[in-house]
């Protein structure tokens, strides 16, 4: 075996602006951009781009200009060296690719290619249900009992369910959790669900007979069945949304109030709003209202914890939450108060989309990101 270094130009012209329909930002170099970066295990394309670019989520633009040279731009491996070079057409990146050669056969990569984002951070949310659409749950079959009459069932047991569709053979068993409502209208968008296990249809009848094929906890009568989910493409490519987005963070897994980098949040927009996997959104914290008379009642807002409208949540910085209206502008605070500018607190990337809500991964967090923070086009 021997090592061969291949210099491949990525053809990245940072001075060219992206189309206005894609994003308002241009691809710009950081002032402290290094001249080279050696790719190491654990790197992501986002992380590498962040060393060179002011807006690392624009990294797909770096690859598209080089389609003739690199058929799959995601194939960057540990040991490769990324260079910043100057050309008559402006700054560009090149990669020195390190590969192993087998005599008389062909070249092959040293190890697995680095991912666009850390897959470990989203794996559980892609493989198991944690949210179900309200319409899906309204039609979801319910478990009504077990073959032996016990209240709890486990792997290998047979159970009965009503309203089982004839075309579905594999199911996820879930248990209802917190409702997810639109902060502005209170409309039910979806439900958080707890994954209980898997089942397969054995006898299509009314009621249907199913066999439990896997369990995370004991199965109970009243648990719901939703069609088994199969994760799709995980080769996430960040991009700006195709249309204006005005949403909010309505839940954060494992957190009540704040969240940080590489944690998952649920936003109040989904397929019906034009959201798709890979959409990058900026997070904004509503500006504080100052000058309010002492003791004056606070603005009313939506509490995602209870699913109902009630008084505004206390924030880590003690600011009053001011809800956003349909135009994306904040509504006025109490009489006599002055509304300070909104603060951009981070970037999130959507990676799984439901009808009315979506999972998004926090990619950058400049300060704590709170429930009910506004999300919009970057």
Strand/helix succession: EEHHEEEHEHEEEEEEEEEEEEEEEEEEEE
CA-to-CA gap between the ends?
47 Å
How many individual domains? 3
Strand content: 35-45%
User: How many individual helices?
Assistant: 4
Radius of gyration: 25 Å
Structural notes for this entry:
This protein is mostly beta strands and 378 residues long. The chain is 6% helix and 38% strand. The chain is built from four helices and 26 strands. The longest helix has 8 residues, at 45-52. It is globular and about 75 Å long. It starts with a strand and ends with a strand.
Which features characterize this protein?
4 helices, mainly beta, 26 strands, disordered N terminus, seven-stranded antiparallel β-sheet, six-stranded antiparallel beta barrel, single chain, globular, 378 residues, 38% strand, 3 domains
Short summary:
The chain is mainly beta. It has helices at residues 45-52, 60-64, 123-127, 134-138, and strands spanning 2-9, 36-38, 81-87, 90-101, 107-109, 131-133, 143-146, 152-153, 158-161, 170-181, 188-203, 208-215, 219-220, 224-227, 246-252, 258-259, 264-267, 280-285, 289-290, 300-303, 308-311, 338-339, 343-353, 358-365, 369-370, 374-376. The protein is globular.
């Amino acid at each position: 075996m021997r090592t061969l270094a291949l210099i491949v130009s990525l053809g990245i012209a940072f001075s060219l602006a992206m189309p206005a329909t894609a994003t308002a930002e241009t691809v710009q170099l950081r002032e402290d951009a290094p001249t080279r970066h050696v790719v190491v295990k654990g790197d992501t394309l986002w992380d590498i781009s962040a060393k060179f670019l002011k807006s690392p989520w624009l990294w797909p633009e770096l690859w598209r200009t080089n389609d003739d040279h690199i058929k799959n731009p995601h194939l960057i491996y540990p040991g490769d060296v990324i260079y910043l070079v100057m050309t008559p057409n402006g700054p560009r990146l090149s990669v020195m690719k390190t590969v192993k050669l087998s005599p008389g056969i062909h070249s092959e990569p040293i190890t697995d290619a680095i991912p666009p984002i850390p897959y470990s951070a989203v794996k559980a949310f892609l493989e198991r249900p944690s949210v179900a659409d309200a319409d899906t749950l309204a039609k979801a079959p319910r478990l009504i009992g077990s073959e032996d009459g016990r209240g709890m069932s486990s792997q290998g047991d047979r159970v009965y369910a009503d309203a089982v569709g004839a075309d579905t053979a594999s199911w996820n068993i879930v248990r209802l959790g917190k409702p997810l409502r639109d902060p502005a209208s209170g409309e039910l968008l979806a439900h958080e669900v707890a994954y209980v296990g898997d089942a397969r249809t054995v006898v299509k009848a009314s009621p249907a007979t199913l066999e439990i094929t896997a369990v995370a906890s004991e199965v109970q009568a009243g648990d719901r069945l939703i069609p088994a989910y199969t994760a799709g493409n995980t080769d996430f490519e960040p991009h700006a949304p195709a249309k204006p987005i005005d949403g909010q963070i309505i839940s954060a897994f494992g957190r009540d109030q704040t969240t940080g980098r590489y944690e998952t949040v649920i936003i109040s927009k989904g397929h019906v709003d034009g959201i798709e996997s890979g959409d990058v959104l900026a997070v904004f914290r509503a500006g504080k209202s100052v000058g309010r008379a002492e003791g004056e009642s606070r603005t009313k807002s939506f509490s995602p914890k209870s699913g109902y409208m009630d008084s505004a949540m206390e924030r880590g910085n003690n600011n009053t939450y001011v809800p956003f209206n349909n135009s994306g502008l904040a509504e006025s605070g109490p009489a006599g108060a002055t509304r300070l500018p909104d603060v951009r607190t981070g970037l999130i990337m959507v990676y799984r989309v439901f009808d009315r809500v979506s999972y998004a991964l926090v990619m950058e967090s400049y300060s704590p990101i709170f429930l009910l923070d506004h999300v919009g086009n970057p």
